[in-house]
Automatic annotation (TrEMBL):
Domain of life of the native organism: Bacteria
InterPro entries according to UniProt: CbtA_put
Protein name in UniProt: CbtA family protein
Keywords recorded for this protein, A-Z: Membrane, Transmembrane, Transmembrane helix
Regions crossing the membrane: 61-87, 99-119, 139-158, 170-192, 212-232
Pfam families named among the record's database cross-references: CbtA
Species in which this protein is naturally found: Saccharopolyspora mangrovi
Length: 247
């Protein structure tokens, strides 16, 4: 017989697959149009400079399908991690149902892993960014994700600390929210800016269309993950001690 933790893990895998499929479909509907326009600008730039565009290993349709498959696989990985974290912190969350707890964890995950990095380092389409700066930009991006997770953990522990000191729920939430805003502001100020300038031939409207579409894709993935995991988990919820989920 499977353990409660294994059951939660399977639900995370299923919810992650659904979230990845949602992200893939949103990419097709929202991201592909500005992406194609950006590729056209990049190709025109190569022709204008007299360079010959290199032959791609895979055709554009194959790349699109590969990107959709990758989105599903990433969704599955995130779903598994989500399930492990949920099983570990379920008994510490304030929502009364597993559906509500799933939405709470989804909001935290989206804020720390997707929204904050998108504010500091918004997605750029092809043709924006120098090859030489890829390593530095990647390091800054993932370190900022780590900073977002640290901010969330600090806020969680601060709220628990204030509650243990007799603060009212409303006061502890207000103080925690204020501290989170301050820490977020410090992180946004402390991390280096994106070193790559925006080329003059990339229209601002196209740039922001791509950035907002990319963020919408991430938001759709997290929303699909939270709702589907909550719905899968809620019918199986018990009031037994949650520590059993992690065993």
């Amino acid at each position: 017989m499977s353990s409660p933790f294994n059951a939660v893990l399977r639900r995370g895998l299923l919810a992650g697959a659904f979230a990845g499929l949602t992200a893939a479909l949103m990419s097709m509907l929202l991201v592909q149009a500005p992406l194609q326009a950006s590729l056209g600008i990049e190709e025109a730039r190569s022709h204008a400079s007299g360079e010959h565009a290199h032959e791609e290993m895979f055709s554009r349709p194959v790349q699109v399908v590969g990107g959709m498959v990758a989105a599903v696989l990433v969704g599955v990985a995130i779903g598994v991690i989500f399930a492990v974290v949920f099983a570990s912190v379920r008994h510490r969350m304030t929502a009364r149902t597993d559906f509500g707890r799933s939405l709470q964890l989804t909001a935290v995950g989206f804020f720390a892993v997707s929204l904050l990095p998108a504010v500091k380092y918004p997605a750029n389409p092809p043709g924006v960014g120098e090859t030489e700066s890829v390593s530095g930009r990647t390091l800054a991006y993932f370190s900022f994700i780590a900073a977002g997770i640290v901010i969330v953990l600090a806020a969680h522990h601060l709220r628990g600390y204030l509650a243990a000191r007799g603060w009212s729920p409303s006061s502890s939430v207000t103080a925690t929210a204020a501290a989170t805003v301050v820490l977020t502001g410090v992180a946004l100020w402390a991390w280096p800016a994106n070193p790559d300038p925006i080329p003059a031939d990339v229209p601002a409207a196209l740039l922001w269309q791509f950035r907002l579409a990319s963020l919408a894709e991430l938001a759709g993935m997290w929303a699909a993950l939270g709702f589907s995991f909550g719905l899968l988990n809620e019918p199986n919820r018990t009031e037994a001690p949650t520590e059993a989920l992690a065993t």
